Amino acid sequence: MNILLYLLVVALCDMAYAGGGAGEGWTEHATRTLIFQAVNFSILVGGLIYYLRRPVVDYFKQRAAQYYEVSSRAREQLTKVRQEMSDLQKQITKLEMTWQDSILKAQGDAAEMRNKMVQQAQETAQKAISDFQRAMEIERNSALESLKKEFIEHVAKDVERRLATQLTKEQHRLLQTRSNKSIEETHL
After folding, report:
1. How far apart (Å, rounded) are the C-alpha atoms in residues 17 and 13?
2. Residue 44: CB partners within 8 Å, gap ≥ 6?
């Protein structure tokens, strides 16, 4: 394109130069020169068009193909990016739902664990109360046994003392035998 502009400038300069510096005006020689220059220029332009038309057209077709290819790749990448964005959006939505499910599950697990701990604490407390009651019953029975023995020994000594002072030896021995039998029977 620039070559055509240069050729046009050269042609116009030649015409301006041919216009004269002598002040004689327009001559036949100048007209003939102008016609030759116009014909030469036309031949030059026709030759350029004839010889350069196909390479220029091929060049522009090649450029159009390159632009189309770049545009196609850009469209493919845009489609791929949109698909990835859609996939990411789905994953985000899934994570949000999973997050909410996880929170609900954690709350349920915490409530269940709390209920189990309360139940275990109640069972432990109930067991401790029952163990305490058993221990208390054993201690009470042991204390009653001990008191019973002491009372029996005390009564037996008191009876012996009273019998020894008030009963005869024969009566005393008979009473002692009966007491021992009744004591043995209560222990069995």
Report:
1. 6
2. 7
Fill in the amino acid letter for 100.
Q
What DSSP string runs through 116-165?
Answer: HHHHHHHHHHHHHHHHHHHHHHHHHHHHHHHHHHHHHHHHHHHHHHHHHH
**pLDDT > 90: what percent of the chain?**
22
| Between 20 and 141, the higher pLDDT residue | 141
pTM of the model: 0.34
Q: Where are the domains of the chain?
A: 147-187
HSE (CB half, 13 Å, CA atoms) of 18? 18
Taking CB atoms within 8 Å and a gap of at least 24, the contacts of 32-37 are 37/11
What lies within 8 Å, CB to CB, of 164 at 6+ separation is: 172
Separation of alpha carbons 143 and 137, rounded Å = 10
**Residue-wise pLDDT tens digits, 65-106:** 999 999 999 999 999 999 999 999 988 888 887 877 888 888
Question: Taking a C-beta distance cutoff of 8 angstroms, is the pair 41, 11 a contact?
Answer: yes
Between CA 149 and CA 175 the distance in angstroms is 19
